[in-house]
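FIELD: query
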Amino acid sequence: MKYLIIVLLVVGIANAEVCGTAKVTDKEMYTTTERRLSENTAFVTKFSVSCSSSAKGLPLFAELNGKIFPVTKSLEGNVYQLSWVTQASKAKAGDQTVRFFDDEGVNAIRKAIRNDEDTSGVKPLFVIDVHHPGNTRDLWITSEVVGLLLAGLFYYAVCQLRSEVVN
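FIELD: result
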């Protein structure tokens, strides 16, 4: 029984895909900037990953501001996508550093979080900086107030015309 467990562990370790050195290419990024239309800001980044060990289809996880996100993989090739949403008031302009991990790395991150340890010591596979230009500023007068003022002016003009016709 002991030998069977050892053999299964060795086979499991041998079959596990390890990326080695990851190279990120074809990075595309998008962030929403319209604060007037939404209370949240969306971030989307799409990229391709090639490993030095020719591993394909690796499950990836992202760590951002102490939160762990799963990364979506497309069916064709090694193209991945990560998206997240944050409140527009907390989405500051500038670069946000996103660290990416494989299964082994995300387990180390979760262990560090569980033990209240610093997660910066865990080495990521790669890092992507997502640039956010910032949200548009709020207007002093909202569109609802402008519409109300225009409706009031229209009502006043109609009442003036009506009073001239009646008299």
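FIELD: remark
The domain at 18-136 is CATH 2.60.40 (Immunoglobulin-like).
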